[in-house]
Amino acid sequence: MIKKFIHRKSFFYKPYLYFRIYWLEKFFFKRKTYSQCGEDLFINKFFKKTDKGVYVDVWAYNPIKYNNTFLLYKRGWTGINIDLNQTSIDLFNLVRKKDHNVFAAISYKRKLTKVFIENIFSPLNTINKKFSNKNSRNKAKYIMTKKFSDLVRKKIDFLNIDIEGMEIDILKEVFRNKFYPWVICIEEIGKTSETVLQGDIYDLAKANGYIFASRTFLSSIYVKLDKIELMPSPYLDELNVN
Questions:
Q1: Residues 73, 151, 53, CA angle at the centre, nearest 5°?
Q2: Which CATH number characterizes residue 205's domain?
Q3: First-to-final CA distance of the chain
Q4: Domain span at residue 215?
């Protein structure tokens, strides 16, 4: 495939980014959902009465494909998109110019760590060695990680975390620094609604005033308990908040 021969120093790099966004990702085609499993449908409906808001997307990957914030962006929201792959940030800078797009690896502490890169267009790039071992093509390089609080310093309304097996560490850092967004969408691969309720992420979210509100094939969505009155039906009717 042509992307195997594309790199950031290549003459064809920037033209290929435009090709991906405007042809492969079909930027101009309006869609009902841009998420991988429809997460943005819940998120957009929850915030349907909120014209302006702020989101943070940790391991954002792509500004359109598999993206849980693009529907909000199209409605006038802005936020911070963070990814450890500079190519992902280059793509965001093409089409999400109102956002703050940050090339960084997020961890629970600042440290020099390995980044395992499958390829510059992959959603599987990670600093999680255990996750990387499942993707043997990944090549490692070193990067200095940053903490969530290094990059986010103001109130946020929606938080999306998809960090390949390190989600709970980042969520602990979020709560430790007193960030309490209305809605948190967090990837929990291999879970069902029943097993989510037995997990560490659920316990951590509940201890910080969140309820488990919805589940897709890949992600769990948590809502701050004092914002539950904002939830649209039929979501509200399905909750057990006791």
A1: 30
A2: 3.40.50.150
A3: 53
A4: 2-238
Q: Note whether 108 and 40 are within 8 A (CB).
A: no
pLDDT attached to residue 242: 41
Q: In this structure, are residues 79 and 56 in contact, taking their beta carbons and an 8 Å threshold? A: yes
Residues 6+ positions from 77 with CB-CB distance below 8 Å: 52, 53, 54, 55, 69, 157
Closest CA to 161 of 112, 240, 107, 212: 107
Rounded Cα–Cα distance for residues 72 and 47 (Å): 9
The helix or strand, by DSSP H or E, that contains position 169, with its residue range, turns out to be helix 167-176
Considering its fold, how many domains does the chain have in total? 1
pLDDT digits (tens, 9 = 90+) for 153-199: 999 999 999 987 789 999 999 999 999 999 999 999 889 889 999 99
Phi (first) and psi of residue 100, to 5 degrees: -100, 110
Give the three-state DSSP class for 166. Answer: coil
Predicted local distance difference test score (pLDDT) of residue 123: 65
Q: Which residue do the tokens 């990837």 mark?
A: 187
> Which tokens hold the place of 226?
């004092």
Q: For the stretch 43-65, what's the b/e string if a residue is b when 16 or more beta carbons lie within 10 angstroms of its beta carbon?
A: bbebbeeeeebbbbbbbbbbbbb
